[in-house]
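We close this part of the discussion by returning to an individual protein. Part of our work consisted of pairing the sequence of a single chain with a tokenised description of its backbone. No coordinates are needed to read the tokens, only the vocabulary itself. The amino acid sequence and the backbone structure tokens for this protein are reproduced below:
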Amino acid sequence: MQLRGLATFAALTLAGAGLSACGSDRSDPATEGVTDAMIAAGVGEEWLTYGGGYDEQRFSPLQQINAENVGQLGLAWFADLDTGRGQEATPLMHDGTIYVSTAWSMVKAYDARTGAPKWAFDPEVPRNTLARVCCDAVNRGVALYGDKVYVAALDGRLIAIDQASGQEAWSTQVVPDLDNYAITGAPRVANGLVLIGSAGSEYRARGFLAAYDWQTGEEVWRFHTVPGNPADGFENEAMERAAETWGGEWWEFGGGGTVWDSITFDPSTNLVYFGTANAEPWNPNTADRGLGEALYTASIVAVDADTGEYAWHFQETPEDRWDYDSNSQITVANLEVDGEQRRVVMHAPKNGFFYVLDAKTGEFLSGEAFAEVNWADGLDSETGRPNIRDEARYELTGDVFVGAPGLYGAHTWHPMSFSPQTGLMYIPANNTVMPYLADEEFEGSEMGGQMGIDVGSVAMPADKSVRQQFLDSTTGHLLAWDPVKQQEAWRVEYPGPSNGGTLSTAGNLVFQGTAGGEFRAYSADSGEQLWSFPAQTGIIAAPMTYAIDGEQYVAILVGWGGLWDMNTGLLAAKSGPTPNISRLLVFKLGAEGELPPAPPLRELVLDPPAFKGTEEQVVLGQALYGLNCAGCHGDAAIAGQINPDLRHSPTIARAEALRAIVIDGALEHNGMVSFDRVVTGDDAEAIRQYIIKRANEDKALEGS
């Protein structure tokens, strides 16, 4: 409590400071080590920042490995990791060393030629942090600048590490409190400032992007994405204008709009572009926020890189009630638009539309659906605003709305790549649907889950025909998209969603890992598959490439997990299923390395105790499970490969065993915290009876 109070006090102090610098002096930009000029030069033989360069194009000019010889690619070396969760980071390479973050925000350094370990850093994130994270204990990468490596830890710290020794240089707490915020994204660096936001839009979080001095860790500026309590005053005019688009007492719920992934700096405009998450709660009636735009949620926002001052915004999903975060990667490029060269921002967010905007002004230039969309009838050709369908406003109709895309999105955090050579964007795309139903009685949750939708009532039923309909409509694909013509060039189909990010190269190649456990190379101009490697585990991260001593390497972090595995229940198996085997894999031409034999996939036989509860308990347990348990243990109590499947757990056979975990916190050291603030003993028993009934339903379904 004392630590939380200090963090809250610090947050209020920052709010009063507005956009002004927190310290009187700022360190000069780096002149040695990794500099702004080196990052601005883009990808060469080194890979210095998350998206390859400031433009986040993830395109490499290296072409020693190309469409003609990629079939000779082999495993040069690999490194096993000690974190068996989802792996989402893109490795960086500088001066012969690979730097990579893993799950639980650990950082490791390897010799880029041989894979020999150099050092390892563990920020010792408390495992109970997992209780305030929607989507696994993941981390998407580190930043390099000067002589330091920067990692944003899951528990809300920004940490600077010495590149040579792996020793901590400084650490600062980024988030305002330790109950509602976490960090999973990769920091970026611009003009000597380290930029980072946070996750938390399903909790009582208020989104922000903050900038820190690279040498000292002192905060320089912070831009909030949603306004706070008007009674406290507004930090700037942007917040005052935004408040006019909200209703009710939104600040009591936090507001959402967190900056949990995309951050892009463009030196040509000196602007930082970042995406914001959904409004919180999802259901507008829950917070009485009405049908206003709820700025600046579900938007791209641009601010001055040096001061954090508002420049422009473009809201992609006004009235967002479907969890259509705009946090997917933002790419900057020069494109020919209507016969003239324009500096543009390109974006493919969760809502299913591909946007092209003017980089300096945010002017809408074009937009088309790149996936199945049924929540809107296209975009206005002048403004880019969506034409929202009446039936999609589920809180007004009172009916179930089966939305496409679903909450997972047509494209989420998995990085896309843009090839100036082909003019195509390579998008890890998904076809997903989700049933939305308003929870008319929801008034907020003390432990998160600020959604205001009835998850339990729309859980996957034990009905083969309904299940098959959802399975049939759930797929994934690699999509090659022409951003000028706003149309598909080609695609490669996958069984399910959550396939890895992409890398494109001047060798006419696109690399991508699959949820099914293959690392593949395709022809960038045609989509023909040219090579694959069995990775033994699902791949959700994006690859990168580098060169040393005249040899080109391709590296990728592998390890199945993340939101799709944790949340989607029966649908999670559509993408694989694959176990988690967390590794860093590095390839080069002519290499002949091999992986050790893979362990068998977890196979469990349903043998639940007999159901002896009441229907009243099941109804209550279903609602409580949907609100508190489904996020980690899966829809309808069907888990993926990362977390325990409670239908198979021996704890459901004994009421006291489940109570010891849910109420007493017996497994808090593993991340399963006590829910005693929101779950009573009777509630825990209702959840147990619901899981027992679900297990018996699925056992009967398997035998039918």
